[in-house]
Amino acid sequence: MHASTAPGPVSVVCRYVVKPGHEQDFAGLLGRHWKTLHASGLVTDTPARIRKCVDQRGRNAFIEEFSWKGAQSAGIAHSTPAVMQMWEPMGAYCSDMEFWHAQEVDAAQP
After folding, report:
1. Once rounded to an integer, what is the mean pLDDT over residues 96-101?
2. 63: β partners
3. Where are the alpha helices (DSSP H) in the chain?
């Protein structure tokens, strides 16, 4: 799926595979992640949904769902000091990350 260019919010699902032994530290950062993005004016007012998971290989992973305010927000985040101060240690705690643009699907519709 290509990044959205439509105006308005862009829903994303983020998957973070955390290195063994760093789950608690990562969870603390992730708990502040949406608040930092929101304080920077980059995400909608709907708080992020966060889940802790175990993948098929037994690795601890976190799934985070939130909505950027617009298609440009993720790019702006890369030049926002408060966000980068959070993203750098988050990246150090992870062995893998994936970011997907998402859209609601009405399962009742074909």
Report:
1. 94
2. 15, 51
3. 23-39, 73-77, 81-93
Instruction: Give all strands of the β-sheet with 49-54 in edge-to-edge order.
Output: 49-54, 60-68, 10-18, 94-102
Spatial contact of 13 and 105, defined as CB atoms under 8 Å apart: no
Mean pLDDT of 63-88: 96
Q: How many CB atoms are located within 10 Å of the residue 42 CB?
A: 21
In single-letter form, the type of residue at position 90 comes to M
Query: Would you say residue 16 has pLDDT above 70?
Result: yes
CB 67 within 8 A of CB 104: no
Q: Give the global pTM.
A: 0.87
Burial of residue 18 (number of CB atoms within 10 Å: 0-12, 13-18, 19+): buried
